[in-house]
Design a protein that fits this description.
The complex is a heterodimer of chains A (117) and B (114). Chain A has 117 residues and is mainly β. In chain A, 0% of the residues lie in helices and 53% in strands. In chain A, the strands form 2 sheets. In chain A, strands 2, 4, 5, 6, 9, 10 and 11 form a 7-stranded mixed β-sheet that branches. A 4-stranded antiparallel β-sheet of chain A has the order 1-3-8-7, with no helix packed on it. In chain A, a hairpin with a 2-residue loop joins β7 and β8. Chain B has a single domain (3-113), classed as Sandwich (Immunoglobulin-like), CATH 2.60.40. In chain B, a hairpin with a 4-residue loop joins β8 (64-68) and β9. Classes of the chains: A mainly beta (117), B mainly beta (114). The A-B interface holds A 4, 31, 42-43, 45, 48, 50, 55-56, 91, 93, 95, 97-98, 103-111 and B 32, 34, 36, 41-46, 49, 51, 90, 94, 99-107.
Chain lengths: 117, 114
């Protein structure tokens, strides 16, 4: 199993540019989560999907952020326009549904480190 | 609403000594509790969980955690620390009616010195 795959691993861009982060969840995982990690705010849940449908996007900081999951094997997080305060590590995670046999542990990707100059 | 508190930003321990990383939680009803570890420049990795049953749960790399319902705590422990245990540790809680959504604590950096 390849695990959760994120790209790019590192992105450096200038303020005002569009940024797109990509995630491929583990096959068979119905849940997909986008988190943001910063020194100041720790680990924040931005949005999560169940069966490709956004369930809770209350953590998305503002309208500049959008996320999509067009199919079960791909999701994107887009920032347009980007700002220096968006600099962070963005993690994607996936999990199976919570059942008696499976307690829904999250599997994280390696993260995308975004720097906005 | 569910929440997790990790009161220590950093824990320092000498190699070979026991370690404890503290976690307290707040949730309606009985909780599901988790510990994750993050090594530098890596994603979080699952370490152990408490779902039900024995209050002492054992996980990867010799770690264990004790669920204490009266104190609403789930402290992470290891009898003998290794330098390679140095990492960022996150406690997380899930309420039993919260779907798959975990709430993470702020993280505690563990530094094990030789």
């Amino acid at each position: 199993d390849a695990g959760v795959i994120q790209s790019p691993r590192h992105e450096v861009t200038e303020m005002g540019q569009e940024v797109t982060l990509r995630c491929k969840p583990i096959s068979g995982h119905d849940y997909l989560f986008w988190y943001r990690q910063t020194m100041m705010r720790g680990l924040e849940l931005l949005i999560y999907f169940n069966n490709n449908v956004p369930i809770d996007d209350s953590g998305m900081p503002e309208d500049r952020f959008s996320a999509k999951m067009p199919n079960a094997s791909f999701s994107t997080l887009k920032i347009q326009p980007s700002e220096p305060r968006d600099s962070a590590v963005y993690f994607c995670a996936s999990s199976k549904p919570w059942t008696l046999a499976n307690t829904g542990e999250l599997f994280f990707g390696e993260g995308s480190r975004l720097t906005v100059l | 609403a569910q929440s997790v508190a990790q009161p220590e930003d950093q824990v320092n321990v000498a190699e070979g000594n026991p370690l404890t990383v503290k976690c307290t939680y707040s949730v309606s009803g009985n909780p599901y509790l988790f510990w994750y570890v993050q090594y530098p420049n890596r994603g979080l990795q699952f370490l152990l969980k408490y779902i039900t049953g024995d209050n002492l749960v054992k996980g990867s790399y010799g770690f264990e955690a004790e669920f204490n319902k009266s104190q609403t705590s789930f402290h992470l422990k290891k009898p003998s620390a290794l330098v390679s245990d140095s990492a960022l540790y996150f406690c997380a809680v899930r309420a039993r009616n919260a779907g798959n959504m975990l709430t993470f604590g702020g993280g505690t950096r563990l530094m094990v010195k030789p």
